[in-house]
């Protein structure tokens, strides 16, 4: 089973898909999410969102000014500014 991840900025959906692991920076520090994680609502800090897809490939985005929400196996990251990094 995989996490369903949605990363959006104020302007657009930046990334949506399934992942085995997501690490994001909050004002409390970095937090990692896998399937079965307890529900979380946290304030997003400026930094990277690192997404490991089920096949092991990585997606990295920069994000700031927002929040993240984990409910069930769905992680939603809403940022004022977010962009994929190459």
From TrEMBL:
Which Pfam families does the record associate with it? ATP-synt_DE_N
Identify its protein family. Answer: Belongs to the ATPase epsilon chain family.
SUPFAM superfamilies documented for this protein: Epsilon subunit of F1F0-ATP synthase N-terminal domain
Q: Does the keyword NADP apply?
A: no
Originating organism: Microbacterium dextranolyticum
What cellular component GO annotations does this protein have? plasma membrane; proton-transporting ATP synthase complex
- This protein's major location comes to membrane
User: Which key words tag this protein in UniProt?
Assistant: ATP synthesis, CF(1), Ion transport, Membrane, Transport
Ranges for domain ATP synthase F1 complex delta/epsilon subunit N-terminal = 3-82
Q: Where in the cell is it found?
A: Cell membrane
Tell me where on the tree of life, at the top rank, the source sits. Bacteria
Q: Which CDD domains match?
A: F1-ATPase_delta
Which InterPro entries does the record associate with it?
ATP_synth_F1_dsu/esu, ATP_synth_F1_dsu/esu_N, ATPsynth_dsu/esu_N
Q: Show the GO MF annotations.
A: proton-transporting ATP synthase activity, rotational mechanism
TM spans, by residue?
A: none
Q: Does the keyword Transport apply?
A: yes
Supply the name of the protein.
Answer: ATP synthase F1 complex delta/epsilon subunit N-terminal domain-containing protein
Recorded topology in the membrane:
Peripheral membrane protein
